Amino acid sequence: MAPSAPDLEARVRDALSAVVDPEIRRPLTELNMIRSVTVGEAPVTGDRTAGAHVTVGVDLTIAGCPMKSTLVRDVTAATEHVDGVGSVDVELGVMTPEQRKALRSQLRGGAGDPVIPFAQPGSLTKVFAVASGKGGVGKSSVTANLAAAMAADGLSVGVLDADIYGFSIPRMLGVDRQPTRVDSMLLPPVAHGIKVVSIGMFVPAGQPVVWRGPMLHRALEQFLADVFWGDLDVLLLDLPPGTGDIAISVAQLLPGSEILVVTTPQVAAAEVAERAGSVATQTSQGVVGVVENMSWLVQPDGSRLELFGAGGGASVASRLTETVGKDVPLLGQVPLDVAVREGGDDGTPVVLAAPDSPGAQVLRDVARRLAGRERGLAGRQLGVTPVG
Ligand SMILES: Nc1ncnc2c1ncn2[C@@H]1O[C@H](COP(=O)(O)OP(=O)(O)O)[C@@H](O)[C@H]1O
Ligand SMILES: [Mg+2]
Questions:
Q1: Are 259 and 323 in contact (CB under 8 A)?
Q2: 47 pLDDT tier (thresholds 50, 70, 90)
Q3: What integer pLDDT is reported at residue 374 of this predicted model?
Q4: Fold designation for 118-371
Q5: CA 39, CA 55: separation in Å to the nearest integer?
Q6: How many CB atoms lie within 10 A of CB 17?
Q7: Considering only Cβ atoms within 10 Å of each terminal Cβ, which end of the chain, N or C, has fewer?
Q8: Are 195 and 229 in contact (CB under 8 A)?
Q9: pLDDT-derived band at 387, boundaries 50, 70, 90
Q10: For 231, how many CA atoms within 13 A lie in the half-sphere containing its CB?
């Protein structure tokens, strides 16, 4: 027998509770985005009752929602799956300003004014600020790959690209979309499961960036407070190279953040990297460790060509250990690897595109070491393979 209309409506609503908003990443039902579920008459063909026609009313956060087609597709699929449903129509509407206000305050946990969630007491999000002495050492490549590896391991991850002069995270993660603005709240695009916001998304293409310290501080504050990050396990910040204004703003806005230093093996690079790391002592941040990148190139005969010399990472790690008075480990040495560069150019980080390539193996290992420090991760399967 065909289910009664109220029964079918309840089951459709139940099915829709599994549909997640692609940006906010919460069920549509929880976000009050399902305006209505209307069950029509089931047409009788011959002696068989076909499924009922169901119309689902969906309220978008904003009219021009870029994820509109994804939403329609997901709602249709979920509804069609319900036993007793024959056909589906999705009717799109837009939230009223009051509904949007309610949504904003719901997402902010009832707080009225935006606050930086990661700076609140009791925040469980680990914040790593990725720093380097100079540009071109692979800071952004390391950031993108650590984020992708952690997300692939099941963590909820965000990346904030704060490198105002050399933002490259959107390309490396394959993001070409702006965040969706819901009044004063920004919903970040999601790529490879990572929420991504870049200062470059707010700068008109091809224009030089001439922001000064106070403006940078305000921009960073806004990205941290106005972006809906949700409950993150890890937030990675790609800092501009050196020890400039942004690094100091990060320390002020996110006192609990820890610095991850990236350097090449070269002595000159290591010296400036050490300076970037030792900013931490002035700002009383922790230094979580050092990643040496471009450590060597494996030759066809299997030998290692140390293109940029050797020892930079180890030397930064041991000198920072002395400066900050706590163990600063060398977390890994990432070899030069064509796949690392290709992954960055293609928008699919090497840890996903070629997870067994030499560079990816080290980056995945560093990601696990950083994630393993998480309090909330006790007992979590980290997928570590024993060496045979
Ligand atoms: N281990 C590596 N092997 C090969 N190419 C790399 C590696 N690390 C970085 N690259 C490449 O070097 C360039 C600079 O890296 P990038 O991450 O943009 O550095 P930064 O953010 O420090 O300026 C990029 O083209 C990147 O693809
Ligand atoms: Mg960079």
A1: no
A2: low
A3: 43
A4: Rossmann fold (3.40.50)
A5: 7
A6: 14
A7: C
A8: yes
A9: low
A10: 6
